Automatic annotation (TrEMBL):
Record-level GO BP terms: methylation
InterPro entries named among the record's database cross-references: YkvP/CgeB_Glyco_trans-like
Keyword Oxidoreductase: no
Transmembrane region(s): none
Sample GO molecular function, one term: methyltransferase activity
Pfam families named among the record's database cross-references: Glyco_trans_1_2 (PF13524)
Ranges where the Spore protein YkvP/CgeB glycosyl transferase-like domain occurs: 156-275
Entry protein name: Tetratricopeptide repeat domain with UbiE methylase
Keywords: Methyltransferase, Transferase
């Protein structure tokens, strides 16, 4: 029987894509993070009101101008850990973080935090392999992303989607500025390899790019730069590299080794599919229930 949350305080969600108009918000990953959470809270019957909430859930990609003191504020740190400091953390009553490694640093700053990974809403697909290599992601300040720079020239069938790529890569690699979010599962499944990378501070502090979960849940295979804690969390289901030469060799190996790709993907897919939006929303609601009488 569905639980009645109608009397619970409305939750509002804010993300850094709320504050940017260029490029359009839909090209930012946290736009979909917010949209999917909002949709799942509503599906559970939990009230959502972004304009006049009683509870604020801040999806931290960067600080917001001011945290309203009259709201019960929850922080979910999913990127840019170098911007996290005690003065920021002190504005929030509850802190979630996607990095076990960084939670230890938060504790040293004098705050408690709970591990909660960014969920995925991607579902398994079985598509014909029409690409060798795919990358979906924006450039970094109109500059080449690390994994694409590390790959360098490649003879394989490559497609890249994201904002700012035109002119940085061979025209035949360019897929467009945007790939429809609802179709990403099919894209990831149709590639032999999906490339991924991380911002320097996220890699250092153990923040796994949620794109990895999206790819694995879809049935895709990922090659990424290494991140502390990723092998343990995803049971070594992601192929990793440290140098451009290693990346070239890793690509060459897995382009040909279908069996190894399938084994690693199946292992990662099982883990990724457990990271659902419903489970994340229920975890947050569980916390709200525990402090309901104090609101």
């Amino acid at each position: 029987m569905k639980k009645d949350y109608s009397s619970f305080p409305a939750i509002g969600i804010t993300a850094y894509s709320d504050f940017y108009s260029m490029p359009e918000p839909m090209v930012w990953g946290d736009y979909w993070f917010k949209e999917n959470l909002s949709r799942e809270f509503r599906a559970l019957g939990y009230p959502v009101d972004h304009s006049a909430p009683k509870i604020l859930l801040h999806l931290f990609g960067e600080p917001i101008p001011a945290v309203p003191k009259q709201l019960y504020s929850i922080l979910w740190i999913h990127s840019h850990p170098d911007w996290v400091e005690p003065g920021l953390l002190g504005h929030y009553k509850k802190i979630y973080c996607i990095s076990q490694t960084f939670i230890n640093k938060i504790k040293k700053m004098g705050f408690e935090a709970q591990f909660l990974m960014i969920p995925t809403n991607m579902r398994p697909k079985r598509e014909e392999k029409i690409y060798d290599i795919v990358f979906v992601g924006n450039t970094k300040n109109n500059a080449m992303r690390k994994v694409i720079r590390d790959m360098g020239f490649s003879p394989y069938n490559i497609k890249i989607w994201g904002w700012g790529w035109r002119g940085l890569i061979p025209e035949k690699w360019y897929g467009g500025e945007y790939f429809e979010n609802s179709l990403l599962s099919g894209l990831y499944s149709s590639a032999r390899i999906v490339l991924n990378d991380h911002h320097e501070d996220m890699q250092r502090e153990g923040f796994i790019n949620p794109r990895i979960l999206d790819v694995l849940a879809s049935g895709g295979f990922v090659i990424s730069d290494n991140v502390a804690g990723m092998d343990e969390f995803l049971d070594r289901s992601v192929a990793t590299y440290n140098t451009p030469d290693e990346l070239t060799k890793t690509i060459d190996r897995f382009i040909e080794d279908t069996r190894a790709r399938d084994i690693m993907t199946a292992r990662g897919q099982e883990i990724a599919l457990r990271q659902s939006y419903r489970a994340a929303c229920l975890e947050i609601i569980k916390h709200i229930e525990s402090i309901f009488d104090k609101l």
